[in-house]
Design goal:
Elements lengths: L4 H12 L8 H15 L5 H17 L17 H11 L1 H18 L5 E6 L5 H11 L8 E8 L2 H15 L5 E8 L7 H7 L6 E7 L8 H13 L4 E7 L8 H21 L4 H20 L12 H10 L15 E2 L2 E4 L6 E5 L2 E9 L1
Length: about 350
């Protein structure tokens, strides 16, 4: 008998409470049934979300060897289009970056020789937007902006150089780019200090959706202590608000289901095609695969909830500061920048804080 989609997530929650060692063969057969039944109706939002959860749970039981089904090929879109959708249409990425960039632009323009250190610079897209924003400011005092980019993936860094070079062409100030292929948790304070220019009059450190990849709490604390000791003017941190660091599979399943369930709801509201919505969901399904599919030894999508980041910041000597700003826009596709919090900004959807944005000194 076909399992009713309305009840499958209740069943998955029950199965998750016994993952991985207490599942019976009957349980495993039921999980397989849910997985295959959801595949039959992927155009339905509920079926797509059920598929992503069931797929990740099956992956966990097969030591990460499970591959995506051939049925999903019909949802493939060009990578550049997926990137455009994430930045232009998906409000959490757009609003979080807009908030962070606005805050950084407002302070960088006051320094003739500032440094922007970006941890997890990726392809340099965010920094390129900051350069373009700075270039439009009439009261800009910058003479030379030094950008220090730290990124563990060489392919991304090659694009970083191209994108920042392109953004720099119209900048009315000099730009110096220093990049380092490395994981931030493997760098010492001395290494980071040596990357700083001999003279500068302001240091701002940005980390957007990067530091949750640090796997161990001891490593996170060490990184934050190193950053604090650099005596930056500000440390700007943007992160999702959900505890996927949680070691209990049952609790992590609940947190994952709630957080990504909201993200899937946001995607369903976007003014894009059904194929593009499915492609965005499959993009996030890879994160769900890691949260629920991989073992503790290899998981990297280890998000903290907001209060965990607050605790870590305070524990390592940082003070949260709510810097005021005037934003060009506050709302996009049903989500908005929450400005009334006492110690941070956030992106909000249906009254829920999805991402948190901290300004720490």
């Amino acid at each position: 008998m076909k399992t009713a989609l309305a009840s499958t997530q209740v069943i998955l929650k029950d199965l998750a409470s016994r993952m991985p060692d207490s599942l019976t063969e009957v349980d495993k057969a039921l999980l397989n049934d849910i997985y295959h039944e959801s595949l039959e109706d992927l155009d339905e939002p509920e079926a797509m979300f059920t598929y992503t959860l069931a797929k990740a749970m099956r992956k966990h039981l097969t030591d990460g060897q499970l591959q995506e089904h051939i049925y999903l090929q019909r949802f493939e879109i060009p990578q550049i289009r997926l990137f455009e959708l994430l930045i232009q249409q998906f409000p959490l990425a757009n609003l979080s970056q807009h908030c962070t960039n606005t805050l950084l632009i407002d302070v960088l323009i006051n320094h003739p020789n500032p440094v922007l250190m970006d941890i997890g610079i990726g392809t340099g897209f965010q920094v390129s937007n900051i350069i373009e924003g700075l270039s439009k400011k009439a009261d800009n005092q910058i003479k030379c902006l030094t950008i220090i980019g730290i990124e563990p993936f060489a392919d991304a860094l090659r694009m970083t150089e191209e994108n920042i070079k392109r953004a720099s062409q119209n900048a009315p100030f000099e730009i110096r780019l220093i990049i380092k292929e490395a994981f931030i948790e493997q760098m010492t304070q001395e290494e980071l200090s040596r990357m700083l220019p001999a003279e500068y009059d302001g240091l701002y450190i940005n980390a957007s959706f990067a530091l949750h990849h640090i796997r161990l709490i001891s490593q996170r604390k060490a990184v934050f202590e190193v950053l604090k000791n650099l005596n930056a003017n500000a440390f700007v941190l943007s992160e999702p608000n959900s505890d996927h660091f949680e070691p209990s599979y049952e609790k992590r399943f609940q947190n994952c289901k709630y957080h990504y369930g909201l993200l899937f709801q946001i995607i369903d509201t976007l003014p894009i095609t059904a194929t593009e919505k499915a492609a965005l969901k499959l993009f996030f399904s890879r994160e769900i695969d890691d949260v629920l599919g991989n073992t503790e030894e290899v998981r990297v999508e280890k998000h903290f909830a907001t209060e965990q980041w607050v605790e870590l910041l305070k524990e390592t000597g940082f003070t949260l500061q709510k810097r005021q700003a005037s934003f060009e826009y506050l709302e996009l596709n049903g989500a908005y920048i929450k400005t009334g919090l006492p110690d941070r900004y956030a992106t909000d959807f249906k009254g829920e804080e999805i991402t948190s944005l901290f300004w720490a000194i």
